[in-house]
Amino acid sequence: MYRLEASEQSKYTEPFSVTKSMLLTNSRRDYRNFTAEWDSIQRMRLDVWGLRSRRREAHNKLKETQLAKSEADDRYMMRVHADELGIVFRGNGPSLLELRNQCREARNEYRPLEDDCADLEDHISNREFQLNRLEQRFYLRWHIPLSPSCVPSRSLTESNPQILYRNVDLEENQTFYHPLVTRYLSTLGDLDIFKERLDDLFDEKRALEAEKESRKKFNKTLDPEDQAWLDGSERMGSQIYEQLQRTNDECQDLRSRCMAEALIDENGDPTRFQELEKAQFGNERDLRINGQTSEYVKFPLLIPLPSTNGYEREDFEYNSDHGKAPFTSSRRVNEWILRKLRSSPLDVLLLAELQKHIRNDDHMWQVHVLSEWFKDETKKMREGSREPSCESSLTTQTGVGSEDSVSFTGLEQKD
User: DSSP states of 307-338 as a string?
Assistant: First the structure.
């Protein structure tokens, strides 16, 4: 063990900086592409959710308008039938002309709402198709079996890098889904949508049939548009029902496949990552897995899952000092040592044993490691002493000429 001073370190700066710069550039470019694609998916999801909310409100308003139109038609037809029978109404009630104008106004208000609902349905279907295609390309390209809620928001993490990890249970808030489970949950959502559309169709059909029966008493018929919709309701219902059946069959098939691989339980809830990992070693006779906890679950911040690229949190896991620090060779070495640490569960376990004497918690010590890693303590030394301070140094075993020659030795890495 010896200390590599600044003069000796400069000999290895140039070749190492070129290689490391290329690696960091590719990693950051991938992360920017990843973040841009994920942001577009998030925006489209918010758009779809907003459209679904508008559809629900539009359907409720359409039903209210339809009820008002039916009541106006009933009052008008009753008055017409009474006039035919010679019944004279006394009082200050509306005249026949006023009742007819009320019917016309109700129809004029109902028809645009009906057209708007139909256009909204088409728009929602188009956006959902685009969202599904975008999500499929995203997950296939990045090979990330994550739930939609697992990827963090860049705006929050940039303003506060530790906001996701403070005073929360990380194991409960980070949910990792298998791609098959993601398809199963998505199909369940589609199934609910088809059920909702079928229920709305039946409600609309029952309302028009009731209005038709009410008009039939006065020898009146439905409007041509309403009658045409009622005549085609059976065909539309059959189409939606066929789609619902196909989606239900696909959902049952995905459910069976997920249960066969122990990805979901009997209630259809996704299996926890810890249980999935135990199941992979279930056939090992000499291995006792009960009571054992995976390092991925023990140290979720320092050890990324193998299904991820390992550097997704690169821009937000460190404190603000990392972003302000100059891009020097010592900083690049510190970054490389940190990544070597995060790739070795044994090193992280040894670090955890050391941290038990300092912090008695489950996860916050990991936040402490990430936030303190790049802080420059030489500033405090310069303020407390008048002696000129030399360049900061790194503690290594042999040197930094190659990546294999550097190993992690402690927390205090200085710029």
Answer: TS-S-TTTTTSS-HHHHHS---HHHHHHHHHH
322 and 228 together in one domain: no
Round to whole Å and give the CA distance between 143 and 299. 22
Give 207 or 11, the one with higher predicted confidence: 207
Burial of residue 369 (number of CB atoms within 10 Å: 0-12, 13-18, 19+): buried
Whether residue 183 has pLDDT greater than 70: yes
Given 144, 163, 197, the domain boundary residue is 144
Distances (CA, A) of 228 to 150, 223, 225, 246, 303: 48, 9, 5, 28, 63
With pLDDT > 70 as the criterion, what percentage of the chain qualifies?
Answer: 49
Convert the pLDDT of each residue in 297-346 to its tens digit.
566 566 665 544 444 444 344 444 444 455 566 666 666 766 666 666 67
pTM greater than the 0.70 cutoff: no
**Any domain includes 332:** yes
Spacing of C-alpha 267 from chain mean position: 22
With respect to residue 28, please indicate whether it lies within any of the assigned structural domains. Answer: no
Residues 163, 121, single domain; the answer is no
Distance CA 185, CA 180 (A): 9
What average pLDDT does the structure give for the chain? 67
What's the DSSP call for residue 403? Answer: G
Is the separation of the CB atoms in 352 and 365 below 8 Å? yes
DSSP per-residue codes, 277-302: HHHHTTT-TT---TT---HHHH-TTT
Give the integer Cα–Cα distance in Å for 371 and 320: 8
**Average pLDDT score over residue span 186-203:** 86
DSSP state of 92: S
Tokens 């056939």 correspond to: 283
